[in-house]
Request: fold
Amino acid sequence: MKTKILFLLIALSTFSINATSTKANLVTNNANICVTEQIKGVFDGADEFGYTFILSLEDGEGVIFTFNKLESNVKEVYNLESDDLVGKTFLISFEMVTTKDPNGNEIETDVYTITDLETI
Reply:
């Protein structure tokens, strides 16, 4: 599991636009692992699966990434349910929480929550 978290941190740090540095924090306890991160991305829309952004790699290739949830403070400022913000570039602050199965099984669930957005 630590390898998974390390891979995620490395992968997300390569998703930044214009080689912008990222901030990452890792918090663990017996049941959850929480990673906080910042990346840049272009909003691509919302659907039943979440909020999709196109993240640009340094080689110019785009990667589609969907966040599962929005914090209420983000919902108050940005209406990501409408198409008005499609194509806008944002600095995205988010957290990824990995929850282990409470019965001790090797089942893990990752939830990506946008905690803050800033237009660029």
Summary: Helices lie at 2-14, 72-77.
